[in-house]
Amino acid sequence: MQETGSVFPDLGEFRFINNLLVDRFRFKKEPPQHRFWLDAGDDAAGIDGWLITKDLSVENSHFRFDFSTIEQAVEKHIVSNVSDISSMGGVPHFAFLGLCLNRHWTEEQHAQIAAAFQKGFASREIRILGGDTVVGDTGFFSTTLLGRTTLAEPLKRSQARVGEGIYVQGTLGKSAAGLWVLTHHFKDKERWKSLVDYHLNPKIKERAGEALAELGTVGACIDISDGLSSELNHIALSSGVKLVIEREKIPIDPEVRALCEYYGISPYDFVLNGGEEYQLLFTNALSNSIFYKCDRIDPVFYMGFVQVGCGVDIIDSQGTSKQMNAQSWSHL
Asked: Quick one: which of 8, 74, 191, 262 could link to 116 by a disulfide (CB 3.0–4.6 Å)?
């Protein structure tokens, strides 16, 4: 296959972010006296040993109260932030919480939201240090999360090396399939309860990144928040390599397979382009058997390998290869 160059597609959201950050090189960097310093470009930034991330959840975009409970919406928001810290080998410690309360929400809903955040952060031993609350026409949650890692350098998406294998921690397609049920076959939501529940309130192994870091075997690492095709392209572009994915080895969740067989549809759009999965995608030079004895990581699945070149290719069972473009969800 002819290589076309490792250029990330012109998705509106990523273009907006790049334009927003374009002036960052104008400012003189004062690196810390010790430990690491990371600019924008990974799941979290790094300043003097701290990992810092920020994620937002907006009503009717990330959560809908006709689909989910308040507790589910809050938990999903917290997971989206924790996953960013985990993907870099860190553990979260402190949070700054911003809330925009929909002016039509009731006092009872306000109390439920406060209780859900208190419980969600406390259960993870995360302390809220501050934040702000406002009222508007649309509700949203905004968290700035700070974490730490014992690594001299955190896990990054730019560390994939030729010869490494490509792995994913957990099965794929669950969140996108759950959303599809809610929007296309709402009456069947109890039949596919595990998928719907995963979309509304994903349960992940939040210490997986820390465990990977302790094993000391990981090259690149990223969490699957925008879709597998997008995250693979992020790693390829950041690392300056080509990723080759073996289509038959992609770990499609068994319930996703069952749903797709039932409705007569392909699972690959869910698996490749569905977001909000929050599993870890990483490269590694060793066999996946090293992960089997670590319950903070397992299950782990091999999907392909890293080679010289650029971009992402996917190979089917007949050996036919084609380029995998990033087709993730974009907010713009």
From this structure: 74
